[in-house]
Amino acid sequence: MHSDCLFCKIAGNEMGTEFIHETAELVVFKDIKPLAPVHLLIVPKRHIRGINDLVDDDRAIISELILTARDMAKKMGVERSGYRIFFNVEKGGGQEVFHLHLHLIGGWE
To answer: Are 40 and 31 spatial neighbours (Cβ–Cβ below 8 Å)?
Structure first.
């Protein structure tokens, strides 16, 4: 855990954030600045700065992030109406918190 990383603090349950889902490897919670009626963040507990910092041993966590997004879309009721999942990469790609996280957005009429 990086002591100055917001998502490390959230994943470490230091911020009182309500988790929608939690496993040994990741947490899922609502984005505080939602872009859609459903906007979840899927965050590994282990600090990985971003996509560019992934190593071959991270394949399992990336798979878990994506499969969890699929499961959360179903849980939130958007699996049939449609949803979007995405990573922002570096400042120029919209990344604001430098701890790897996957966005799940959906729920539009």
So the answer is: yes
Write out the H or E segment, with its range, that includes residue 9.
helix 6-11
Enter the pTM of the model: 0.95
With a CB cutoff of 8 Å and minimum separation 6, the contacts of 37 are 106, 107, 108
pLDDT in tens, 38-47: 999 999 999 9
Strand, coil or helix: what is 11?
helix
Q: Which of 2, 47, 99, 101 is catalytic?
A: 101
Active site annotation includes 21: no
The reply to whether CATH 3.30.428.10 applies to domain 6-106 is: yes
Residue 47 and residue 5 in contact, taking contact as beta carbons nearer than 8 Å: yes
pLDDT tens digits, residue range 15-31?
999 999 999 999 999 99
Q: What CA–CA distance (Å, rounded) separates 47 from 19?
A: 18
Where along the chain do its domains lie?
A: 6-106
